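Friendly challenge for the regulars: who can give me the structure tokens for this chain first? No prize, just bragging rights.
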Amino acid sequence: MSAPSLLAAAHAMARRDLRLVWRRRSDAAQPLLFALMVVVLFPMALGADPTRLATIAPGVLWVAVLLAGLLTLDAFYRGDADDGSLEQMLLAPVPLAWLLAVRVLVHWTTTALPLVLLTPVLAQLLYLPADLLPILMASLILGTPLLSLIGAVVAALTVGIRRSGMLLALLALPLFLPVLVFGAGSVMAAAQGLPWLGALLLMGAGLAFALILAPLAAAAAIRIALT
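First reply, four minutes later:
Bragging rights claimed.
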């Protein structure tokens, strides 16, 4: 019997993960609801002054996305570690890094992409100027996959530790902060009439490196944790 191709393995992995997400759709909706709650609370706390809210809108939206991403890290491999699926992935005839890359893609599609699609509505709640919305969307499209890739590596480092939620947050937050700074900073720089393209280019370069290195690093960390 011939070994499955990379595309066939990716299709099977994605179909399995999407099925699991659908079965736990209430858990999958938590990041979206959390981000919505964060954004709604800011106008209630600071008042409905459009000028003030427009000034802080990029930072608020990016913080909401970052914190919502932290909520999902503990479940990145937890179910697979509990039911033995990680060991089966190690024994699969395709590279573990390839399977983890598919896992990251599914994670981003089911957690971060809905937030990105909801961003225009959330931006309206915070009175973000319309001319800044494309820059904000571009920063989120570049930054949210980078957060998922970094989160995959951090979650892999703690896969063998029980109740690692707080440790995950402590490890991930310093690595997430540069993405937050460049993502929100590009929009705020554009609002002030300053150059903003460089921040997006740096995020794009970081995403390109992470696409190659993060699955390899996560696979190495899982092998160490399970052997």
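The chain has a mean pLDDT of 85. DSSP finds ten helices and no strands in the chain. Your move, everyone else.
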